[in-house]
Amino acid sequence: xxxxxxxxxxxxxxxxxxxxxxxxxxxxxxxHIERQIEQNIAAGFPAVEAHRKAxxxxxxxxxxxxxxxxxxxxxxxxxxxxxxxxxxxxxxxSPGFVAIIIITLALGIGVATAIFSVTNAVLLRPLLYRDSDxxxxxxxxxxxxxxxxxxxxxxxxxxxxxxxxxxxxEMSSIMVFRAIVPRxxxxxxxxxxxxxxxxxxxxxxxxxxxxxxxxxxDGQPRAAQEDPPQGDVxxxxxxxxxxxxxxxxxxxxxxxxxxxxxxxxxxxxxxPGFTLLLPARATTEREPDVWIAxxxxxDEAHRGMGSHRVIGRRK
Amino acid sequence: xxxxxxxxxIQQISEEVLKVQQGSLYPALHRLEHQGWIRAKWxxxxxxxxxxxxxxxxxxxxxxxxxxxxxxxxxxxxxxxLAEG
Lengths: 315, 85
What we know:
The structure holds two protein chains of two kinds. By secondary structure, chain A is an alpha+beta fold. Helix content of chain A is 41%, strand content 19%. Chain A contains nine helices and ten strands. Chain A has helices at 2-15, 23-42, 47-58, 61-78, 80-92, 95-124, 154-163, 200-204, 238-245, and strands spanning 135-138, 140-142, 147-150, 168-182, 188-196, 208-211, 233-236, 265-270, 290-293, 309-314. In chain A, strands 1-10-4-5-9-7-8-6 form an eight-stranded mixed sheet. In chain A, strands 2-3 form a two-stranded antiparallel sheet. Chain A is rod-shaped, with a radius of gyration of 41 Å. Chain B is α+β, with helices and mostly antiparallel strands. Chain B contains three helices and two strands, in the order ααββα. In chain B, strand 1 and strand 2 (50-56) form a beta hairpin. Chain B starts with a helix and ends with a helix. In chain B, 15% of the residues are buried. The interface between A and B is medium-sized, with 28 and 19 residues.
């Protein structure tokens, strides 16, 4: 009897196609019919008749399967949430596969993001400066000594600016260096100092948030200044003003601390966020702490000593 | 309960009045499951084979209560109309 039953079971199995998504449904319905056959046999029906009767009582097997599949199909449209849960459950069964997918996605997204951020910064986003599409850099190439990309001396910068007024609307020079300045209590502080021509901030469109911008008079060589000499004037970066002066608004007009001679007089504080973007080969600080008005004058004596980077704006 | 037991139970309780084809139970069960009113779990059957067991969820229990009261109101109304007619 039980062998007959087994063969029936096998035949039943062949009745149900084993298809990946339908496997569970097949198994569920198969269980039902087998159970019904058992009951029919228990009720005294011969095996073949019990089988036939069970199928008859069940109704169309493939029709039932279709209907079940339909509810599944509708449910997919009805609730995406269930799909997500289902996905999640399925994925937890194959952690290796999931790990590979995650790594692939992570690398892909990472690379794409990296490339985009570079492209965005270099190619897409305009510079933060006023009329940045008309700004150009100037540098010196010495063919004889095969030295290229050299900075200008003050005298050469003056010559360049005065000789190219028909091409350039404006031109300014920048020299950035490291300086050590004293702090109260005998301590010292390393800061980044920039000497710029007095037109620099207005040319670049930088805003002076406190106090005022440099004036042309601030760029006059000391000898030509009124007596007693006023010395250098400085504009602080917003960050340095916060860091070193605690954002004190009364710093305007005060002299910076310096050793021996009176330090530069503070006349302004920049609005936050101004960065000095020069090509990497210029190796300048991006955010100088203190900006000093260039008052070197023509300075013929140091014509050979180039240390100023030059930015011009085309007409 | 698994599907077969549910079908048996319906037949027993309804005293064979509701003679539906057993197969039509399954699309209904699957629909209820997808609605979230019942939940299915594979387990061992009484004769030690794999069977899919259904049980009511919390939402399903609430739904059952509200649908039951709706049904009794409706059938009471129908009874009234028939009695009056």
